[in-house]
Every structure is written in C-alpha cells, then in structure tokens.
C-alpha cells in the first residue's frame, strides 16, 4: 500500500523560501506508471495545482506561480520536494503531495489517486 | 489555462436523496475529467476518472457522465458519509485545473 507523507517547516517568513519534502513508502518513486505532483489549498478555499515531476526529472509548473516553484526528485531516498521562493502571505495554505496514475480506457487518463495527509504552511513574520 | 466551473457551490440534501453536481470546462476536454471528494481536515479522495470510470473501492451509488465541456457527478441515495465537498479536475492540459468545489450539506 503506497503512502505519501509531507514534511517541512510550518512557518516561513515573507520573502524566504518554502521547502517541503514528500516521502513515498510502499512502492518505488521511479515507476514509469506514475508521476508526482504538489497541490495546495488555502484555508476555506479550493485546490490549486502547483506542478509535477516525472522520475526522469522532467517537470511542469503552473504559470500562476510565475517561476517561483521548483520540484525535484531523489530516487535514492524515494522522495520528491517542492521549493517555493519569495513567499508572501498569499502562499499560506495546506500543501499536499500526490501520486498521479496513468489509466487507459479508450485513451490515456491521468488522475491524482493517492494523496498525503497535507501539511499546513503559514507565511508570517 | 482551462477554467473549470462547478454549480451549485453548495447544496442541502437529505439522507436518501439523489444529488447532481455540474462541472463545465471552458473548452473541449473530451472525457479527461476527474472527480474528488474532500472531507474537512482531510486530503481529497479520487472518486471518478475519465469522466465516468469509478475508482476502485468507490461505492456504486456514485456515477459520472458527460463529455466535451459539460459533466455531471451524481450520488444516488445519499448516505451520511457523503456529506463533503466535491471537486472536478481536468487532465486534458497543463496546468491541471480544479473546479471551485460543491459543498453537500445536510438539510
């Protein structure tokens, strides 16, 4: 049973870098069947996709983060990480890591099928 | 970016009711549409992918439909554990985008 667990500081000062790690247990992170994503959710609001990484290291990001996000993978530790630079109060949110699975019906489909429990990050001085 | 619009934003229903949530995409996404359920303080849970395929372990009272730009999530015979917020999400193009959510509350 694959499980994901986020870790990192719960409080970050404005203008600094938010750094989170997602530890994957119960299965290898370097499977070709999956890729890995970060999603965040401000209190009382909806879900926002941050970006994704393949085990190869290929990444894609949401343009809304204006180049502040970097996702990396460490296959030796079965982990992937998120760095978000120049944070402001608007980055305060629960951050989730998630596995994205490929499924074939009449075409390939992608869905976030396993999520970590989430970690609350507050940006404040 | 593809915009996802859900309606209603909230609804009140009773145990045993049938409930339908609507999700509309700003452009054609074929059937690249997923549905998630989220309970307070918990991570989202995948219910349906490819618009209508039930994720393993999800009760059959949940169903999804639609294609192109218009999609529905239906819950037949609402159960106490179904009171939650539901989100649609398109997987047609990057960035992945979510609808604003529909909160299903107890009447």
Written overview of the protein:
The complex is a heterodimer of chains A (about 120) and B (about 110). Chain A has about 120 residues and is mainly beta. Helices cover about 0% and strands about 55% of the residues of chain A. Chain A has no helices and 11 strands. Chain A has strands spanning about 5, 10, 20-25, 35-40, 50-55, 60, 70-75, 80-85, 95-105, 110-115, 120-125. In chain A, the strands form 2 sheets. In chain A, strands 2, 4, 5, 6, 9, 10 and 11 form a 7-stranded mixed beta sheet that branches. A 4-stranded antiparallel beta sheet of chain A has the order 1-3-8-7, with no helix packed on it. Chain A starts with a strand and ends with a strand. Chain B has about 110 residues and is mainly beta. Chain B is built from no helices and 11 strands. Chain B has strands spanning about 5, 10-15, 20-25, 35-40, 45-50, 55, 60-65, 70-75, 85-90, 95-100, 100-105. Chain B is globular, with a radius of gyration of 13 Å. The termini of chain B are far apart. In chain B, about 40% of the residues are buried.
